[in-house]
Amino acid sequence: MLMAGQTDFLKTEYDELVAKSINWKLRSLQSASTPHCIVDGKEVIMLCSNNYLNLSNHPKMKRAAIEAIRKYGVGSGSVRAIAGNMEIHERLEKKIADYKHTQGALIYQTGFAANAGLIPALAGQGDVVISDELNHGSIIDGVRLCKAERKVYKHNDMGDLERVLKESASFRRRLIITDGVFSMDGDIAKMDEIVKLAEANGAMTYVDDAHGEGVLGEQGRGIGSHYKIEGKIDVEMGTFSKAFGVVGGYVAGTNDLRNFAFNKSRTWLLSGSHPPAIAAASIAAIEVMENEPRHLKKLWGNTKYFKKRLQKMGFDTGVSQTPITPVIVKESEKAKRMSEMLFEEGVFALPIVFPMVAADKARIRTMMNSGLKKEDLEKALSAFEGIGKKLGVI
Ligand SMILES: Cc1ncc(COP(=O)(O)O)c(C=O)c1O
Fold first, then answer.
1. Architecture in CATH for domain 23-52+293-390
2. Contact 255/103 with Cβ under 8 angstroms?
3. Taking the model in full, what pTM does it have?
4. Annotated catalytic, 151?
């Protein structure tokens, strides 16, 4: 055991975060994650959940989870490579592959585990990973675990990507990796151009489509469908923790990719497999995507209306093209104050400040939900307008 004194850093380092006002304060959800929910005892309009399609409350998915518990219990008992490979896991993978129009798919416990497990397997000694400068932290950590070299290109800048590709011609393998939808700004990677550059230069492509799956393209099939380049991206990674309303990561691609990934990803081999209820709810989520297009249609209708109204009021919504709409207020303190004032008026939307975004780009990040009604959007918009004026943002 550590001697008294050796753990003092726990408190001093935490106190430093508090002094700089960059510590996380957790709000507590006391209801299901619904478009109207109870947070810290207050009924609020939810504008910061990734549950874009409100599927976490879908009756078919809840029923599927309950039935799976009755049939298979609550846990799988092992990692998949030993005794925890259940037929329901394989059924989910078949369902993902059919939905994504790929040969195969492999589920991981989370999207983070997919990136942390697969990226280091794809690129090793003598290889290079070429990464967009605004990629998600789970990609950054996956790349840190690699023995490969790392090169970064300017955000969504195809000229710069081409420059890096040319510079890297001598490496054994080159892996280009990008978010599909960038989670802080809501813009979409130029995946069609990335694929062309990769083909021209003999590089592999890997997209983390965590915020694109269930949101972009036909039936929400993601960025490949959005650009009509299905089958051309080598690795499509996604998660069930966002639009699909459950939890769990996956990769979709060729059967070769699936076989390689599960034999080589340490996060897959050394960690327990999905509880059966999660696998069942995830299968049901894809069925909902295939059979109930109204959720996706409503999400985009709400998104376009909300974004346009914010812009008309004079807010800076940056480069967003998706249901992630930032309201950029610049100063961190202002973003935090705005979030608190919104909460007081019954709107739950979190501030995003440095170091998650540049120091002068602090914002409130709103995430749209298909379950919000016109009157909810009006209420939220009027709160934004009043507070924006009070704080001198508009
Ligand atoms: C772009 C991106 N990739 C990966 C992840 C991780 O996904 P998961 O929640 O399944 O671990 C997230 C979630 O925050 C994300 O936004």
1. Alpha-Beta Complex (3.90)
2. yes
3. 0.96
4. no
